[in-house]
Every structure is written in structure tokens, then in C-alpha cells.
Design brief:
The chain is of the alpha/beta class. It is built from nine helices and eight strands. The protein has one domain: Alanine racemase (TIM Barrel), CATH 3.20.20.10.
Length: 231
């Protein structure tokens, strides 16, 4: 029951944020972040209408995805290491955390081997935080043409994780910068980048006001993550 209530509340908050921004609520995708949550919880979310699911760890996804409803659409939202690319291409409809040309080239190679086109998003680290992955904006702009030339990749947009702040309003400048960087990338490519993945449980309403099309919600939907037990 808590999950259903949480989902209703989140949807209401998304709708209110869209109204403030004069946006259609249908323009925002709610992505359930299921890290450490079991397949049973994922199935319950699916039964309540969740379609898009984000996972952070390849090994966890390999074990979990086969046990979950087949209608779900899975995105990889963690940091992708080169030795996990083959699995990521096999498991995920979208890889959101592409943060270098080298990892993009590896994804392109594995997608070619798999005979598929791989949807990706480019992760940007707008604050230059050493603890986070992602492109510096100017490096992204410099490498964008090379990224776009990879024939098996489809660039759908940008993804970002802003610095943690105690008040959600304090991260608004980073969300605004991500939206503006998207426009700069579109100008360079001469093509639209329709997706902007930003905003999590603590700040998704501000992200929506600044143009997010995908919000990644874990704690506000499922509650605190299960604690690992030690023996």
C-alpha cells in the first residue's frame, strides 16, 4: 500500500511542477530506480503502471531483469566500465551514463556485434565534482561530432547528477545549465536531443521546472533502500 500511495503522491507532484512550468505532464517520464530492491518490488511497481526502470549496477541487473515483467523498459543509469559494456548492450534499452568517447566507442563495437542500435545519453558533470563521473561541458562539445559519428549509437540527450544541496532550489542553476548545454549540443549537431534526464527524489520538481523529461526516483517511491545484512 505504501508504494501505491507514494506513486500517487509523486505523480501529483510531477503534475503540479508541470503546471508551474506550463508543461504537459505527459512530457515527463517517471523512472523508478530499483537499486537493491528485489524483483517482487519491481513487479509491484509495474502492476501500478511503472514502465521505465533504472538500474545502477550491471551484476544486479543481470540477476534481476530476467525475474521481472517483460513489459518493463530498462535504462542503465550508473557508471559503465568497459568490461561491462557487452552486458549493458544486451540488457538495456538505453545507457544513460556515457561519459567518454572511449566508452562510447566500446558501446558502438558491442552494439555492432549484437546487431542492434544502442540508445545512449551523455552524462555531464556540471560542477566538476571529483567524486562524480561525467563530461565537462567544453569537452563534451569538443567530442560531440566524434560521438555522433559512431554508426551504432543514437544520442537521445543529456543526463546529469547535480551536487547535493540541503535545499532543492539551490540546484536549479545546474539544471538550467544542463538545459542550456542541450541547446548548444543541438546547435552543433543540427538535430534535436529530445531527452534530458535529471532530478531525483529530493529535487525532481525543480528539475521539471527547468526542462527535465526523465526524473529518476528511488527513495521517494520505494522508501529507504534495504540495508545489507552481515553475518
Amino acid at each position: 500500500m505504501a508504494l501505491a500511495e507514494n506513486l500517487t503522491t509523486i505523480r501529483q507532484r510531477i503534475a503540479a511542477a508541470c503546471e508551474r512550468a506550463q508543461r504537459d505532464p505527459a512530457s515527463v517520464t517517471l523512472m523508478a530506480v530499483t537499486k537493491t530492491h528485489p524483483p517482487e518490488t519491481v513487479e509491484e511497481a509495474a502492476n501500478l503502471g511503472i514502465v521505465f526502470v533504472g538500474e545502477n549496477k550491471i551484476q544486479e541487473a543481470k540477476a534481476k531483469i530476467p525475474l521481472c515483467p517483460g513489459k518493463l523498459r530498462w535504462h542503465f543509469i550508473g557508471h559503465l566500465q568497459s568490461n561491462k559494456v557487452r552486458d549493458a548492450v544486451e540488457l538495456f534499452e538505453m545507457i544513460q551514463g556515457v561519459d567518454s568517447l572511449s566508452i562510447a566507442q566500446e558501446i558502438n563495437k558491442r552494439a555492432e556485434q549484437a546487431g542492434k542500435r544502442q540508445a545512449i545519453m551523455l552524462e555531464v558533470n556540471l560542477a566538476g565534482e571529483a567524486s562524480k563521473f561525467g563530461y565537462a561541458p567544453e569537452r563534451l562539445l569538443a567530442e560531440l561530432a566524434d560521438l555522433n559519428a559512431l554508426p551504432r549509437l543514437e544520442i537521445h540527450g543529456l543526463m546529469t547528477v547535480p551536487p547535493w544541496k540541503p535545499v532543492a532550489e539551490q540546484v536549479r542553476p545546474f539544471f538550467r545549465e544542463a538545459r542550456e548545454l542541450t541547446r548548444r549540443c543541438e546547435d552543433l549537431l543540427g538535430a534535436p536531443l529530445p531527452q534530458l534526464s535529471m532530478g531525483m527524489s529530493g529535487d525532481f520538481e525543480v528539475a521539471i521546472e527547468e526542462g527535465a523529461t526523465i526524473v529518476r526516483i528511488g527513495t521517494a517511491l520505494f522508501g529507504e533502500r534495504p540495508k545489507k545484512t552481515t553475518t
